[in-house]
């Protein structure tokens, strides 16, 4: 488990495992092979604070992210229906299937050069199966998301 993504404390490296089975715990400990060091005091305090006092913040964050997600899906389906996007669940990352756009290059390269937005390159995740995909992080301010969507939509419509 980790508070890292939900509470944005990934750099504090405080993931942990709760393993009640003694044999499995020994196997887990042995598999670390000295690669996992100890947790720092800042990470411990931040994790404790997040879990003890962060419920209201997390509830608000999830609501904000859901609104961003819904905005993203609505905008793409309305303005660029050729991009296939499935409703993401339990994540702030959306996979955009751009294979029906007929772009002159991979979607990552196209949007970087024409829309000036850097998305995650689908080809980095699987050389062939996701090469026509990009991954968009909607865990950002609404204004940033709107600006990115404006650039993306404009770059697609400029091809028409």
From TrEMBL:
Per UniProt, which keywords does this protein have? Answer: Lyase, Pyridoxal phosphate
Report the residue ranges that make up the Aminotransferase class I/classII large domain in this protein: 4-152
Which SUPFAM superfamilies did the record assign?
PLP-dependent transferases
**Domain of life, per the record?**
Bacteria
Report the EC number(s), separated by commas if there are several: 4.4.1.13
Entry keyword Membrane: no
Instruction: Write down the required cofactor(s).
Output: pyridoxal 5'-phosphate
CDD domains xref list: AAT_like (cd00609)
| Family statement drawn from the similarity comment of this UniProt entry | Belongs to the class-II pyridoxal-phosphate-dependent aminotransferase family. MalY/PatB cystathionine beta-lyase subfamily.
Q: Which PANTHER family match?
A: PROTEIN MALY
The identity of this protein, by name, is: cysteine-S-conjugate beta-lyase
Query: Source organism lineage?
Result: Bacteria, Pseudomonadati, Pseudomonadota, Alphaproteobacteria, Acetobacterales
């Amino acid at each position: 488990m980790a508070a890292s993504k939900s509470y944005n404390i990934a750099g504090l490296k405080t993931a942990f495992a709760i393993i009640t089975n003694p044999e499995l715990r020994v196997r887990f400990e042995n598999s670390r092979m000295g690669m996992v060091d100890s947790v720092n005091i800042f990470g411990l305090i931040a994790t404790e604070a997040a879990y003890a006092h962060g419920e209201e913040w997390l509830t608000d964050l999830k609501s904000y992210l859901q609104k961003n997600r819904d905005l993203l899906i609505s905008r793409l389906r309305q303005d660029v229906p050729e991009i296939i996007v499935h409703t993401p669940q339990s994540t702030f990352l959306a996979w955009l299937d751009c294979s029906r756009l007929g772009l002159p290059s991979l979607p990552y390269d196209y949007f970087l050069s024409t829309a000036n937005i850097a998305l995650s390159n689908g080809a980095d995740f699987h050389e062939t199966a996701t090469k026509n995909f990009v991954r968009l992080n909607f865990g950002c301010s609404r204004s940033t998301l709107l600006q990115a969507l404006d650039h993306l939509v404009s770059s697609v419509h400029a091809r028409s």
